[in-house]
From TrEMBL, chains A, B, C, D, E, F, G, H, I, J:
PANTHER family, per the entry: NADPH-DEPENDENT 7-CYANO-7-DEAZAGUANINE REDUCTASE
Record carries keyword Oxidoreductase: yes
Protein name: NADPH-dependent 7-cyano-7-deazaguanine reductase
Pathway linked to the protein: tRNA modification; tRNA-queuosine biosynthesis
Reactions the enzyme catalyzes: 7-aminomethyl-7-carbaguanine + 2 NADP(+) = 7-cyano-7-carbaguanine + 2 NADPH + 3 H(+)
Pfam families named among the record's database cross-references: QueF
Source organism (scientific name): Ponticaulis profundi
Residues given in the record as substrate binding sites: V74, E75, S76, H93, E94
Amino acid sequence: MAEEIYTGLGQLGSDAKAAETPEEATLERVPNPHPDMLYCARFVAPEFTSICPVTGQPDFAHIVIDYAPNEHLVESKSLKLFLQSFRNHGAFHEDCTIYIAKRLMELLEPRYFRIAGYWYPRGGIPIDVFWQSGPVPEGLWVPETGVAPYRGRG
Amino acid sequence: MAEEIYTGLGQLGSDAKAAETPEEATLERVPNPHPDMLYCARFVAPEFTSICPVTGQPDFAHIVIDYAPNEHLVESKSLKLFLQSFRNHGAFHEDCTIYIAKRLMELLEPRYFRIAGYWYPRGGIPIDVFWQSGPVPEGLWVPETGVAPYRGRG
Amino acid sequence: MAEEIYTGLGQLGSDAKAAETPEEATLERVPNPHPDMLYCARFVAPEFTSICPVTGQPDFAHIVIDYAPNEHLVESKSLKLFLQSFRNHGAFHEDCTIYIAKRLMELLEPRYFRIAGYWYPRGGIPIDVFWQSGPVPEGLWVPETGVAPYRGRG
Amino acid sequence: MAEEIYTGLGQLGSDAKAAETPEEATLERVPNPHPDMLYCARFVAPEFTSICPVTGQPDFAHIVIDYAPNEHLVESKSLKLFLQSFRNHGAFHEDCTIYIAKRLMELLEPRYFRIAGYWYPRGGIPIDVFWQSGPVPEGLWVPETGVAPYRGRG
Amino acid sequence: MAEEIYTGLGQLGSDAKAAETPEEATLERVPNPHPDMLYCARFVAPEFTSICPVTGQPDFAHIVIDYAPNEHLVESKSLKLFLQSFRNHGAFHEDCTIYIAKRLMELLEPRYFRIAGYWYPRGGIPIDVFWQSGPVPEGLWVPETGVAPYRGRG
Amino acid sequence: MAEEIYTGLGQLGSDAKAAETPEEATLERVPNPHPDMLYCARFVAPEFTSICPVTGQPDFAHIVIDYAPNEHLVESKSLKLFLQSFRNHGAFHEDCTIYIAKRLMELLEPRYFRIAGYWYPRGGIPIDVFWQSGPVPEGLWVPETGVAPYRGRG
Amino acid sequence: MAEEIYTGLGQLGSDAKAAETPEEATLERVPNPHPDMLYCARFVAPEFTSICPVTGQPDFAHIVIDYAPNEHLVESKSLKLFLQSFRNHGAFHEDCTIYIAKRLMELLEPRYFRIAGYWYPRGGIPIDVFWQSGPVPEGLWVPETGVAPYRGRG
Amino acid sequence: MAEEIYTGLGQLGSDAKAAETPEEATLERVPNPHPDMLYCARFVAPEFTSICPVTGQPDFAHIVIDYAPNEHLVESKSLKLFLQSFRNHGAFHEDCTIYIAKRLMELLEPRYFRIAGYWYPRGGIPIDVFWQSGPVPEGLWVPETGVAPYRGRG
Amino acid sequence: MAEEIYTGLGQLGSDAKAAETPEEATLERVPNPHPDMLYCARFVAPEFTSICPVTGQPDFAHIVIDYAPNEHLVESKSLKLFLQSFRNHGAFHEDCTIYIAKRLMELLEPRYFRIAGYWYPRGGIPIDVFWQSGPVPEGLWVPETGVAPYRGRG
Amino acid sequence: MAEEIYTGLGQLGSDAKAAETPEEATLERVPNPHPDMLYCARFVAPEFTSICPVTGQPDFAHIVIDYAPNEHLVESKSLKLFLQSFRNHGAFHEDCTIYIAKRLMELLEPRYFRIAGYWYPRGGIPIDVFWQSGPVPEGLWVPETGVAPYRGRG
Ligand SMILES: [Ca+2]
Ligand SMILES: [Ca+2]
Ligand SMILES: [Ca+2]
Ligand SMILES: [Ca+2]
Ligand SMILES: [Ca+2]
Ligand SMILES: [Ca+2]
Ligand SMILES: [Ca+2]
Ligand SMILES: [Ca+2]
Ligand SMILES: [Ca+2]
Ligand SMILES: [Ca+2]
Ligand SMILES: [Ca+2]
Ligand SMILES: [Ca+2]
Ligand SMILES: [Ca+2]
Ligand SMILES: [Ca+2]
Ligand SMILES: [Ca+2]
Ligand SMILES: [Ca+2]
């Protein structure tokens, strides 16, 4: 099993803080220890928050990311800090969700990628945003996210 | 078993429409067929809606009413029409919930009464309102409402 | 362990049919094999149906009965047939539920009894009826019924 | 990330009220900030209500809308007000649900659209209405709605 | 939106009673207000009951019907009365379920039809019966029924 | 509807007991009342138990059987007795599950068959066994079993 | 922490088989390692089965046992074998459940004891049996069992 | 019903922003429209976030507040802004939760108050904090919060 | 709000490793920032594991700890390391659970303490262990743990 | 049914202990008793734990393995011991999960294989890893795992 893939990273194991904006945040990657295997890694980030650019109010989302690594894995601490960099930054729901996707696509050039943003309701109506990089490649296993739908009350 | 208690009612079996305001709505009652028994009747009204007096926006609630009949039962069609009469009427959450209680208390003089109003969230925060007429009388069985709490997303 | 308590019964093991009305139905009882123990027996009858005396439409309920046997147990096949005897008989929700209780109280003279009738909604509003014979006797264990509340849709 | 797409709108940020009928309601749209991405946006509207044209009684539904934006997004406040405009308007279940679809199809000319209307039961039987604009385009991710089925009681 | 499709019906708005047998029951239909749209309507009937032709005991089922209307919709009150007509009629599980399908197929000649009968257990083993008229037509959206499986106890 | 298919059976309506081994058990069949319809029947048997041939300890399973009848249906009482015949018989998990399948395949020659055996955990690890006779025939509707996965504690 | 309490036992670590009847089964006990603490131990036995003395059919139950040890703990392997000894033994639901209680009471003389037997349905109606040795002693924590109620279908 | 209680407020209906620290935030109150009724109001705030004073990392919590109004209600928009003021402020879990309580106690002098803070896990272990102002007053109805416990995975 | 309570600790913020046995592990405490408030803190540890002293096999548990702080709080990193110290140490279920309680009682001298150990099944039967230091003090709020019961399969 | 397949094994029925590293662990196999049947066996291992090679902290996972046997089955006790051998061994999440797959692929040369590793969260974000050996072979039935998604709190 691989033990040497996490060298030369800037944030892991250090006291790195989140950047002030997503654009300033640095996503890091490490070599995929199993480039011969078409597999899926899923991250669930239930603690996402950003700012509404119109009202200045905080927005919240539960984010699920699935990807099939190609030559690299995302280094998970840099992913956490990247997600935290939206904390005081204004961005619309669709934009946030898709921007996260674009940054990870650029970093990883994965065989497959998808993102789901489950946003908390505003005005009684929640919005979910779903994007994938294309059809699921043949032979890749990507289970459903299983996130409960919004149900109001009762 | 009782078969004659529903005579002399104004709304049951007719084409009665909801009143335009709760104050105008007529609640009707019928004799309790088992006045010797200390029991509880529960109504669940998942289709409650009113108007916010400040914003003019519709509000929604899931309402649960429990009461222990004394000499009378509420006639259920008149209850339905009474609840519908809030549809285009402005009233705050706490006020609506407690007003429903007061009207039923006045009509029924029950041995026990309680109401739960589970309001849909506004600004990300739902409000629930709970009132009962006093401690549960000894020997009366009033199960929990079991309504699922609001959970946001995820 | 007891093996001789089910003798002399009219319906168990025979091809007995349900009576045409609850009044005609015969409830049978057998000796309590453990009269020294204050325990609770719960029956769940999710297949209850009767007729609305006003509209002639069928009504449905999920019924839960808890009791603490005294000298007798209810014989379960006679209970099943008794409940089936409401099938084509007109009776209101509260009446049905309480009548079942009264018949079983009369038959069993139990140390404790309670009944819950969870009726399917009519006009969007379901009614539940709860009755118990008095406070739960000290030392008797009667768990909650755990029946899910009505939730409408969503 | 986009910050200028919400200009020139009539309702957002103002005190706009819902129109009196769906036909009078104005749906607004904004440019899709990511027209290069085939993605799905989902709206959940658990607070839908209209009037039955036969009985005059209120009807309720839990509505889920999924669409893949083409050149435009629906502006969410105008969507909310459009849905509110059914509040005192008579329309059948199938009609309401499909009419919402048609109005949004006309406004957005999306790459894909679907709607689910989960209506509260009447006469003990709820109706659900499901429509989509055609097969899901290859590569578009549209998860199941996950709405719990109606279960009656028990 | 359509407002004139419910004229000339025999049962809607009248005091029609259920027929004594399914064969005698009259199913009625109305014009499909959106014959240009390939959509699905789902009915959930949790209150189905019939009689076992061998034992004479009542049987119960939770029925889910999905269909894609062609030129007609089933009129929902006549459907309710049709389902009620099995109440005192003997029929096996598979037969009941498939017979309902055949009657609706004959009435509606729909673009697609399916039925699920979830029968309450007998002898500890429940039976479910599933039929559809053929593969789901391309572009029709028919979500899973989501009915919970039987789980015994625990 | 069919009423004459259950004649000439050995076990239904009699006091038949389970055989002592699965090999000795007699499965019976009746004519399929709807051979023109490609439908699915599901049996859920949550009360399955056998003996581990190595340790002599009892094993337990929750079994789900789906099949599309061809010319015959399995007679359900004989199925129940067949499943009971494993009670004191030693057989491995995979063997039991597949043997049940083979016996039913032989009896019914169905258009499609599948079986799921959800075995209770041993050594902290449960085993599930899934087999089907081939791809689901085009147009046959076979919903997921929906059985909850094993979750340990918490 | 205690390490010497499991010596001198007849069944633990050996190839002991279950006795043929509950009366013949030997329950064993070990010293309570914390006799100074008023605590509760809960056993959940979802694999209980016995024989109906009237019909000879197998019965199944999900059993939950809570007790507050006094001077002894029940040795868990002997408990497992004791429960297995009902496998081919005829006993009624109430009898089985209460007999288990009596044997454990006799063996352990605990500060508190309770048992819940959740029996699989027969004739559509499951029976639960609940017994406790008396009121919960002050300061003892005995959480609810949380077992899901029987729900039929849907 | 009351309509004049929301006058003279600083934040409601204006574009008020959250303060930068909880100490600077202004909580506002309005007269209780039903001071004669001992009732409970519940707020659920699933979007709470603060900063860990040791690590500088964001913390998240799901907060539930129940109180029995005395002479005043908390004005809900000021509550929302107060909770938002923790967003970039460092505070420990226990401290945050209890500080919220103290500020509301001071503002409202309620007849009863309680707060539950359900914090997201750190290091695999979540912390919940529960406080109430004293025993629940006789006759006040305060249902359980019903928040799901943390379960890890599986 | 308090900011100076975490000084002088040995493990927090350092690279401390778990001790090799529970006896060697050092639990640390910090001053209670709100000694004037009778509140409850709950820790959920779903990742507990130890070794069976008889078989040498690993055991697993989901642990829930509730306590009402007196003068001190447990420092959470030292608690995590204490729980990890059981990883390669042999101890029986009841012993482990109660030993954790005794160590925390000794460290904290809390106003109230309780622990629940939900152990994964062995031989098909899981054991839960529940202990509390005495009755819940008047006015302390300690909600149920809400942990799902073991359910076997199905 | 097969009874002779478990001969000549090194670990089953003996007191074998887990190896100290996965590389040293011996996986054993037995002949597939039904090589003519394309079926799926699923193992659920909710008790998996390993060590993080960077921090030395324990990691936990809930693992689900599905495979379609070819000529051999994995012997389940050797699988259990293999999984236990990760207990004190350092390995990254992706590596562990994929390494288990590779070892089983090598041993079994199955017709199909897949693995899901549901890892407990670190830093608030859990990772899931999914791999399969290729597309599901035509006619093989491999149900979804149904594992609940991570949901944070609330
Ligand atoms: Ca799926
Ligand atoms: Ca409760
Ligand atoms: Ca409770
Ligand atoms: Ca709802
Ligand atoms: Ca699905
Ligand atoms: Ca699905
Ligand atoms: Ca079970
Ligand atoms: Ca599915
Ligand atoms: Ca409780
Ligand atoms: Ca039901
Ligand atoms: Ca409770
Ligand atoms: Ca777990
Ligand atoms: Ca409780
Ligand atoms: Ca409870
Ligand atoms: Ca699925
Ligand atoms: Ca959440």
